[in-house]
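Hi R.,

Here's the chain you asked about this morning:
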Amino acid sequence: MGFNEFISKLFGNKATRDMKEIQPWVEKVKAVYPEISKLTNDELRAKTEELKKFIKDSAAEENKKIEELKATIESTDLEKREAIFSQIDKLEKEVLEKYEKALSEVLPTAFSIVKDTARRLSENEELEVTASDFDRELAAQGRDFVRIEGDKAIWKNHWKAGGNEMTWNMVHYDVQLFGGVVLHQGKIAEMATGEGKTLVATLPVFLNALTGNGVHVVTVNDYLAKRDSEWMGPLYMFHGLSVDCIDKHQPNSEARRRAYMADITFGTNNEFGFDYLRDNMAVSPKDLVQRKHNYAIVDEVDSVLIDDARTPLIISGPVPKGDQQLFEVLRPLVERLVEAQRKLATQYLADAKRLIASDKKEDQEAGFLALFRSHKALPKNKPLIKFLSEPGIKAGMLKTEEIYMEQNNKRMPEAVEPLYFVIDEKLNSIDLTDKGHDTITAAGEDPKFFILPDIGSEIAEIERDTKDDKEKLAKKDELIQNYAMKSERVHTVNQLLKAYTLFEKDVEYVVLDNKVKIVDEQTGRIMEGRRYSDGLHQAIEAKENVKVEAATQTFATITLQNYFRMYHKLAGMTGTAETEAGEFWDIYKLDVVVIPTNRPVIRIDANDFVFKTKREKYNAVIDEIVRLVDLGRPVLVGTTSVEVSELLSRMLKLRGIKHNVLNAKLHQREAEIVAEAGKSKTVTIATNMAGRGTDIKLSPEVREAGGLAIIGTERHDSRRVDRQLRGRAGRQGDPGSSQFFVSLEDDLMRLFSSERIIRVMDRLGHQEGDVIQHSMITKSIERAQKKVEENNFGIRKRLLEYDDVMNSQRTVIYKQRRQALLGERIGVAVANNTYDVCEAIVMEYQPVNDPEGFRMEVLRVLSVDYEVDPEEFQKARPNELAESLYRYVREAYQRKVEHIAQQAYPVIKNVFETRGDVFKNIVVPFTDGQRMYSVVTNLEKAYRTNGEDLMRSFEKSVILAHIDDAWKEHLREMDDLKQSVQNAAYEQKDPLLIYKFESYNLFKTMVEKINKGMVSTLMKGQIPMQEPEHVREAEEKRTDLSKLRESRSEAQAAAANREQVRHEPVKVGPKVGRNDPCPCGSGLKYKNCHGKNE
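And here is the predicted structure, written out as tokens:
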């Protein structure tokens, strides 16, 4: 017995402890269920209303206090409002805590209600209940699962979901109750494929929706979001809970806003994230669609929170001269360089083969050095990969590498000196050598054309050698401009080199419709709208001779990690999360709980077959497919790229075996192909993660033959992806098998495999076609996968560390912006910003004792003449002087507010009394002498407050305008900073630390700029004289986002699923004529009832 087994036996393992903790909850549900099952249909629905009331009442006292505090805000002095707002925030947190406590108390009853509703629908074709207003509304909308007959509502057990007719036949079993409890507790439930994750989610979704605060169910693509909302929707709607799907409605629309106001909202991860960004670009409260982030369940949580989290969501817009780029200009130079390197790598490989075959030790050493250089020159060169798979070759090259890596890479320059550039495949990086710089610099050009100057030393030289200040300034400007140009040039060359040497067509991307489209390495799907960052995508476009898209500027951005961390409670479900448990806990503080299967898994998982070359491996795969088809078994072949899928397809055609191919070019048939993959003798070639959310069901004859056979043609970088592929077989106790075929030429094996495997195969003297299969080999491969997972986690964590810096700034700005947009705390914000500006001016001029400069700055920024005695200015404490200035400015501002209100009120009064029945909102022009502001204000409010509300509207417009202008500029500067700090690595400095320090300075400067600009505009603002007849009504307009682009708008599979016309959810139910009786049962004509607004 090993040490780990001994400890597990002594203390129990995590899975056992988790089940022990959840078991009491499941027992409570089972104890309550018999009572719930005895209730009539009406009593069952009444029980739900009873639970809603109990939950609301649990925090009734706190909610009452909040309303009372909100009512006192307007009558409270500005200085005292901050304390009230803090109290409200504290009480809102207490409300959420009380709700959580109440939810735990009602959990057994709520779960029993959902379970028994599922049972009643599965046992009865129709359920009759007393019709509620909600039932009538659903019937009037044409929902196919409910109709009204008099005062009764008839609920059917069959309806359309995802465009297909389905009959409800599912009831929760005990292990699904376990999963429901885990999800309610805000953890990740890992459930095997076919265990009914969608049904499990109904339990915590129903329970948490009872609060009325909203529940979000997040899916990986829009097809699943629409299907699941229609499939599970009637279960919730039967109990009066509203259900909608954001992906059915246009962004930034009233329909999408209503979808977020529903009790339960389905949608894709990208759309939830983009809606958050759009809300923070809105200019009117009516443009806001989301409410507070309460509770979310993420389906396929590993795909969303790990795979999708690698790149941020970005909304971007055009930049001036964004189409003037260097990619096409520099492409011929890079092509020439890559071709020269290819010839050099080929020559080194030929020399290596000749020298290694020699009997002399010196020749062999020189041969391995040549081989190492060839590897550093082009590591993906196929002849090189083939040669490295021969006995003793890779081991010899690794030994040579160790020699040159000794003493912190001291001799490495000696090894790579003859190359034009050096590729590090593991780090995905490329560095030009001196020889490369010389080659790429055209004849007659500056030899330092592609070399960045050392700014520090050159500025010091200018300071030392130049006496004239003007000349000194001109030289510094020229130096900085030269650095910026060269930096852009070097960056462009680097990205072009990556495009030519590290990114392969039909592997990392495909070219369709004259556009470069990224292929997701996990799912094999095309990710429409998604682009590589930092100019890499433009470099690939230049390489493939397609149109190079213009550069864009970031207007709003967030990573999925930081978006989902905003939820009060987050949970997730998947079949493959255990291997990433560390990352889930580290980043999201999400615990992974493995839920036992309803029936034991009897799938046979064989040890890997390891071959020396890819050719031998693929031949063995085809032989195995033929053997399995002869046995009458269906076969699912997992691949990692489009290229491999097409190669296997050609090989099967030569053998005359019928098969389906599912890859990035054919994903419109995904659901159809995956659904048929369980039929006898059906061969399906698909990427490892294809068909998530679609079960492969087996017929009795297939079960008899041995079930679904899984063949993996390559080990993926992540164990989780391999487990996903394996999990396609063996659902719900079905028989099945899985077998992975691996070769030493595979990317994973080349980069991370243990040297022990290479030595074992060399020692055994394996011949062509020989295979090795042993648990030691399989474990070694899994260790290699662990290395990659750790590396990828490091990359994702680094991305998050950079975004955490942005997120702390984003949170401050978006909170301030939202409060201004909603009209909350505007008075407090203006007062605080005014004090900050007063304090900043004092701190700038008092330390240098410049009272005259102080007075002029106050006059320039704040438009008030503040006289101060020079002696008092010098002696006064900074905080006292700032306080005195603040009081003076506030009094002046108050007089200004009263003056503008008196000036505007006669006009507002006239318009309200003559055209108040026509106008709701009016536009009032303001100016600060430099810019015009068209301020929209509510006519009646402005009239009732004697014109004071007009000033609140002006304050709101000014705050939003200054925040938006400064934030966009700040994001551009942060993008530039993130790129420039990477050079710090060459100086042995941590780029992240420099990024944090510099970004803080940038943010501080931006906040000061916003405050100064905002207060200055408010102090200078005035209304140009205006006659009542010139006042115009404000047009109802939504924020125009049409010119902006979402760079991951359809990441993953949304575009592919849009093409699945057959599977799109459709509007069901007959069209009601305007003169027909309304389906709600009111007895009125449809046009006079629910069709009144159509």
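One quick note: Residues 775-821 form the longest helix (47 residues).

Cheers,
M.
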